[in-house]
Amino acid sequence: MQVHQVTWRHRNDYSAIMGCEHCGHQQHHGGLYADAYFAFCIIPNRYYCDKCDLNSLGEKRPESDRTMTGELQAKSLKSVHDPPKDSRE
Ligand SMILES: [Zn+2]
Fold first, then answer.
1. Percentage of the chain surpassing pLDDT 90?
2. Distance between CA atoms of 32 and 52, rounded to whole angstroms?
């Protein structure tokens, strides 16, 4: 995912609309941090597209990495009609 538009910022914390390099899907993320480590190490590795499940490096989202953002919880609340097939609760 890459940052398209910052929607909120306070000191180094920010929220932004992020876009997927692979499918073009855009989603909102909070809890972002404005420093080089976060931008070059965390975002490319740890932020996955909700649509194609790939990160910037083209790696598929692992099962164990479904807890990173509130975005995922919001998604699971919205998707009661279409629950994720790998839900293991
Ligand atoms: Zn995508």
1. 69
2. 21
